[in-house]
Specification:
Layout (H helix, E strand, L loop, with lengths): L1 H18 L12 H22 L1 H5 L4 H24 L1 H15 L3 H6 L1 H22 L8 H21 L17 H28 L1
Helix pairs in contact: 1-5, 2-4, 2-9, 7-8, 8-9
């Protein structure tokens, strides 16, 4: 009987804690720069998806699925980042994880593991970029601009995650006379990714007309 009651109470307690999460689906940053970043992400997303669709025209049949995966996946990431820029989904994710950690009595362990999460995020990002670089070493000209934009965005995300979770990371402001440039890296990165996508589309279209 007690086991039966326990199995009922645990989900109810979990639902009670989840209901206490203070997050609303609303615009989190109404300022012009934030909307410019959203527009840049959407512009980049559409360009990346178009590159995935026209991958055979741009890159040929060699490693066609790889090219489609990279550009399609990056398009999905850009779309997610555009939505996240205003809805602040990482806050919702963090609060849900806190509730689950408290419910499973591992909150202190999770709190001490934040720096490892940020480190793992950086290591994973570096691994993905190394994988892409290795596979495009014979077509690096079509990817060099893209990778530069991705590096800018990854740098922004890692520093933002470090700030969010209280992990101190080196600031670029010490090289720029105290001017904070991390926010500008996000906009610049999205625009560079978009430039790479549309440049590839334009080059393929130009070659097709010849």
């Amino acid at each position: 009987m007690w086991n039966r009651l326990w199995s009922i109470n645990v989900p109810m307690e979990l639902m009670r804690r989840l209901s206490e999460i203070k997050w609303e689906a609303k615009v989190g940053d109404p300022y012009l720069l934030a909307w410019l970043v959203v527009a840049a992400y959407l512009f980049a997303a559409f360009g990346c998806i178009a590159c995935a669709i026209r991958a055979e025209q741009i890159f040929g049949r060699h490693k066609l699925n790889f090219h489609r995966t990279v550009w399609g996946g990056l398009g999905a990431v850009m779309l997610f980042l555009a939505i996240n820029k205003q809805l602040d989904l990482q806050t919702l994710f963090t609060q849900i994880m806190k509730v689950l950690a408290k419910n499973w009595d591992i909150y202190e362990l999770g709190r001490r593991s934040r720096k490892y999460f940020v480190f793992g995020l950086g290591l994973f990002s570096a691994g993905v970029m190394a994988w892409i670089m290795w596979n495009v070493r014979r077509q690096w000209r079509r990817y060099v601009i893209l990778l530069l934009g991705v590096i800018f965005i990854v740098r922004f995300i890692i520093v933002r995650a470090g700030t969010f979770y209280g992990v101190r990371l080196p600031e670029l402001s010490r090289f720029t006379g105290g001017i904070r440039v991390n926010g500008m890296l996000e906009l610049t990165g999205a625009l560079v990714v978009a430039a790479s996508a549309y440049l590839n589309l334009w080059t393929a279209q130009k070659a097709r007309r010849k």
